[in-house]
Prior knowledge:
By secondary structure, this protein is an all-beta fold. It has strands at residues 16-18, 21-23, 30-32, 60-62, 66-67, 74-75, 80-81, 85-86, 93-97, 101-105, 110-112.
Amino acid sequence: MSALPHCPACNSEYTYEDGIQYVCPECAHEWAKDGSARATADEPVIKDAHGNVLQDGDTVTVIKDLKVKGSSSVVKVGTKVKNIRLVGGDHDIDCRIDGIGAMKLKSEFVKKS
């Protein structure tokens, strides 16, 4: 019986070593042996307008009035957006704004709260 750690993503016991990292064959999750987090090509680093690194679940504040495409609504400066989700592409934040609904935002128009 090996003393390898269980997968942090799916808690599978069937993990194996691959060079300087562990790999889970069930969910394909990879993590460093030393426990440090590493950004990979699949996970781009997304930063706010002030250069702070954003993560899923963060709360951000809008720093500029933003017109809502296809509507006469405006997202006002100072609007807090909770529980963001980071996605790739031009608009890299998926969120839900009270009174407006689901939106995609650019990280350059928000700051981390």
